[in-house]
Design a protein that fits this description.
binds flavin-adenine dinucleotide, methylenetetrahydrofolate reductase [NAD(P)H] activity, metal-binding, transferase, TIM Barrel, binds zinc ion, 23 helices, alpha/beta, FAD-linked_oxidoreductase-like, binds methionine, HCY_dom, eight-stranded parallel sheet
Length: about 625
């Protein structure tokens, strides 16, 4: 007889949380290290669960993998820690309970934090130790990312015929992250060879029960559930779970009615919760039939059609000019609005507004964008970096932009905090620019990052950054290709300072289907030229440009003239190669960008006249 034979006959009860009971050692401790340093305590916890009624216990190895142990400098101890864990669980079980080797998921909400290759390597290393210590089965638990669970389950299934329990973690009732319905996920896990499929962690009995109502009883595999004790409260720097054991007794019966065969607990549960489950189901009789609730389908409203063509379409069809005028670093918008108005009068297509560029605080571009749109009837292009907002803040920001009708956005990773005024501030980077582009694309399909319906589709036109001021242009172009795959509609470049570089950029990108707005920023002075040349990574000014600026070092009027003349020659170089021009206003010197806008319009007019004249 083995675990699967038991499950065929009846409901089986598993243990509850291990981590929660080890909290007393401090939340910053590596709980798995205690297998080696406090073995008697681990044995004691296992015994308490068995005495409470658990017939299945899990090794204390949830995070005993290379990646998580490395956070404590214990990456070389994977073997020792896992080996000890199995031995301690067996010592406590004394043949009274099955011992499951537990392996926890690595990816949380952000796929790009760890590649699948690293997931595989890390998983294999832990798996082989657990198997060689002769566990009775495997518990793959707390997988937020379904792709990760599919990957590791396939590996485990090839390596062993022991029972495998595969647990996903819900995002919300009935769905995993990115919107995959739970029923579909469990069906796929069964097809991949899991013997028991189910849920653990993150949510308590309420969400799990409502989710299981939509899941049919599998044909071959068994259903399992390890709920958290409740939703956690954050108190005095710790997460506290509070729930009555009485409630666990009631919900255990409800789980049985949903066809669950293996019931245990996750975070916040204790031997008392497990005893409550055992009390609730004295004869362990399972149900074989249930009514499955149909998942309600969700209607997503189509995006409202915007009246104006996107900036990508503009740059495809005609000369278009966008100008950056950054929100001020000090309070007061008078000069900024004068500049914006002057640029509007010069007939630009959009005003681009940086998001705390160079990691230095500026008036929020969402506030400035709203004023520019409402008071001046201009089109704002809002830069969004991943530096200042976490995944929650970014989504709230996007919903806000949609609500305000600002649909032109530039998705950036963003300069790291250490380059700016507050080098000690956190750089969030929950997402990279690639992830942010994908997120905005998903919003355009009416879904949040996790796949929850937003109720409406957004209509964002997505720009992305192109930094050609790098040693290997081909690598930068590869990033553009990836950004296009993620959903970028067009690009804006960093400023370029040589005609040759503009031509090189054209040659390297002419195969791309997306338009590029070529960046041009007038130099304001000899000092500005020196700074750009010596201190901004990747920017090199020619000797000729630096000599021209140096020659008028003490003459601001002449410096402006020279800076504009240089910018105009760059515009000349870009004119026939790129329809989109992105002018960057230096230090709120909008007089300079206004003049360049006039220059471009005039050049365009002359070109058209010539075309008409010569046919
Ligand atoms: C048009 C434009 C507007 C910008 N606006 C802002 C703003 O409002 N606020 C702000 O904080 N910053 C802004 N920046 C700066 C920008 O965040 C950095 O220049 C960034 O490095 C490039 O853009 P990204 O953020 O999309 O980076 P990504 O393309 O996502 O690159 C992120 C990081 O990857 C690395 N990387 C990129 N390319 C390569 C390569 N070829 N080889 C090796 N490593 C590479 C770099 O470390 C880079 O920082 C802007 C840049 C541009 C081009
Ligand atoms: C963080 S979810 C998994 C927790 C693990 N089963 C433990 O109790 O420690
Ligand atoms: Zn948990």
């Amino acid at each position: 007889m083995g675990l699967l034979d038991d499950l065929k006959q009846r409901i089986v009860i598993a243990d509850g949380a291990m981590g929660t009971l080890l909290y007393a050692h401090g939340i910053d401790r590596c709980f798995e290290e205690l297998n080696v340093t406090k073995p008697e305590e681990i044995v004691h916890i296992h015994e308490a669960y068995i005495e409470a009624g658990a017939e299945v216990i899990q090794t204390n190895t949830y995070g005993a993998n290379y990646v998580k142990l490395a956070r404590y400098g214990l990456q070389d101890d994977v073997k020792e820690i896992n080996k000890a864990a199995v031995q301690l669980a067996k010592q406590a079980a004394k043949g009274r309970a099955y011992v499951l080797g537990t392996i926890g998921g690595l990816r949380s909400t952000n796929k790009s934090t760890i590649s699948l290759e690293e997931v595989k390597r890390t998983f294999r290393e832990q798996l082989y130790v657990l198997l060689s210590e002769n566990v009775d089965g495997l518990l793959l638990e707390t997988y937020y990312d379904f792709e990760e669970l599919q990957t590791v389950l396939s590996i485990a299934r090839k390596e062993t015929t022991l029972p495998i329990i595969a647990h996903v973690t819900l995002h919300d009732i009935g769905v995993l992250q990115h919107g995959m319905p739970l029923a579909e996920a469990l069906r796929q896990l069964e097809l991949l060879g899991a013997d028991v499929v189910g849920l653990n962690c993150h949510l308590g009995p309420y969400h799990m029960l409502r989710s299981l109502e939509e899941v049919p009883i599998p044909t071959r595999a068994f259903l399992s559930v390890y709920p958290n004790a409740s939703l956690p409260q954050y108190r005095d720097g710790r997460f506290i779970y509070e729930t009555s054991e009485q409630y666990f007794e009631e919900t255990a019966r409800a789980f049985r009615d949903q066809g669950v065969r293996l019931i245990g607990g996750c975070c916040g549960t204790t031997p008392k919760h497990i005893a409550a489950i055992a009390r609730a189901l004295p004869d362990r009789t399972p149900v074989y039939k249930k009514e499955v609730k149909q998942r309600h389908t969700i209607v997503v409203q189509e995006a409202e059609q915007t009246k104006q063509p996107s900036l990508a379409d503009l740059a495809r069809t005609r000369r278009s000019i966008i100008v950056e005028l950054d929100p001020p670093k000090k309070l007061g918008l008078t000069k900024f609005l004068e500049g914006a108005k002057a640029l509007k009068d010069a007939h630009i297509d959009a005003l681009t507004l940086a998001d705390n560029s160079l990691a230095t605080p500026r008036i929020s571009n969402i506030a400035v964008g709203t004023i520019v749109k409402q008071q001046l009837n201009m089109r704002p292009l809002i830069h969004i970096t991943c530096r200042d907002r976490n995944l929650i803040g970014l989504q709230s920001h996007l919903m806000g932009l949609h609500t305000l009708g600002m649909t032109d956005v530039l998705a950036l990773t963003g300069d790291p905090s250490k380059v700016g005024d507050f080098p000690g501030a956190t750089s969030v980077y929950d997402l990279s620019s690639f992830d942010l582009i994908s997120l905005i694309r998903q919003f355009n399909e009416g879904l949040s990052y996790s796949g929850k319906p937003l109720g409406q589709k957004t209509n964002f036109s997505i720009a992305a950054a192109f930094n050609p001021n790098v040693r290997h242009l081909d690598k930068a172009v590869k990033r553009l290709e990836k950004k296009i795959e993620c959903g970028a509609h067009y690009f804006l470049t960093q400023p370029l300072y040589s005609e040759k570089q503009i031509k090189d950029v054209y040659e390297a990108t002419k195969h791309l289907p997306t338009p590029i707005y070529i960046g041009i920023m007038p130099i304001t002075s000899a000092r500005n030229a020196d700074f750009l040349h010596h201190e901004v990574p990747g920017i090199t000014l020619s000797d000729d440009i630096r000599a021209r600026m140096a020659a008028c070092a003490n003459d601001p009027v002449q410096s402006t003239r020279e800076g504009l003349a240089i910018a105009k020659s760059l515009i000349d170089a870009a004119f026939d190669l790129f329809r989109g021009i992105y002018l960057i206003t230096p230090f709120l010197r909008y007089d300079m960008t206004v003049e360049l806008v006039h220059y471009i319009h005039e050049k365009e007019r002359l070109t058209k006249e010539r075309t008409v004249y010569y046919g």
